[in-house]
Amino acid sequence: MSPRRSAPDASRTRAAILDRAVAVASTEGLEGLTIGRLAADVGLSKSGLIAHFGSKEALQLAALDAALHVFREEVWEPSAEREAGLSRLSALCEAWLSYLERGVFPGGCFLTAASCEFDDREGPVREDVNKALSLWIKTLEQEVATASERGELPLDADPPQVAFELNALAMGANQALQLRGDRTALERARRGMARVLEAAG
Amino acid sequence: MSPRRSAPDASRTRAAILDRAVAVASTEGLEGLTIGRLAADVGLSKSGLIAHFGSKEALQLAALDAALHVFREEVWEPSAEREAGLSRLSALCEAWLSYLERGVFPGGCFLTAASCEFDDREGPVREDVNKALSLWIKTLEQEVATASERGELPLDADPPQVAFELNALAMGANQALQLRGDRTALERARRGMARVLEAAG
DNA sequence: CCTACCGATCGGTAGG
DNA sequence: CCTACCGATCGGTAGG
Hints:
The structure is a homodimer of 201-residue chains.
Chain A: H1 7-28, H2 35-42, H3 46-50, H4 56-80, H5 86-101, H6 110-118, H7 124-149, H8 159-178, H9 185-199
Helix pairs in contact in A: 1-2, 1-4, 4-5, 4-7, 5-7, 5-8, 5-9, 6-7, 7-8, 8-9
The structure holds a DNA duplex (16 and 16 nucleotides).
């Protein structure tokens, strides 16, 4: 009898590992992920766990990807049905703050944490974090541009500036919420975002 | 002959350790500080190094304190001579962005990094990070309030809201600068801060 | 401030 | 997917 499991079994095991890896990395950081601890958490041997990924770095990349998938589900997808432009931009911002408020990840915004942890390192993890954040910023910029074209924002609205400020306000909310336990942070971010969109003209 | 050095010697050694500890923690994180590596860096044995602090946690607290001292020197003190109110608030913001631009810490803003790393942990390091950030936010709020009293900002300006937004913009600049290498971030933050202060009325 | 040492854990491999 | 193992390193202590 081979110890190998069927492909669906292996896929389920992999999903269970990644679930746990995302939770751990959310609070301890992607560098704080350790193979031994994770293996014990999901009831595998170290070698059994690492067989699914090949190396710690590959595990980190897979955990990051899984976390981004959650972010897409929680923030991106619910807003996709809204009309492109200001309506979708507002929906994205609201879903974003809701995602922070509901504590989807125990350690707060996964992407912000990963960005802080890897912004001064080199390698594929940093590159993937950079790509994910750039894509998100581009998405915000795109909605600002569409809103301008549709006459919902002035034609001279500055998409990169607006996206920069919206992103900054969400980071500020995440910090105030996580570190300082300041529940008013969401309202402050919401007010700031509204003002950014008003002032975009 | 006792292996003990004189008090001034010990103090110099301690300062050298902390210099290096701040640099390492800035890029690797406070949790990434290890006694063995730090000892090798400064040419001590592990036990020789730890004798100065007692434990890794105490070393982390001392490194954080040393980093905060730098922040005060770089941002706080140069602005202290400006008149309280809008003038000093503007000077604080400008010194803050300049501190980011000059890369005073190799890993970007030390306090932001420490905040991300410890915002979901417990213990004295998290408490000290929280205290330092709260004090900084309070300082910004105070200058907004003074500016209102002096008629430089409207009487209904909202100090916590303004401080929240200024802090968020600096965080956004730090991220864009460190992760994305986006040199325009400073100008974006500067513009955002100016707009926050204009809109405070 | 040192040497010498502790148990624990790290990422990873060999071989099955 | 396992057991058994590798060398390296972790934080920290004993004793001087």
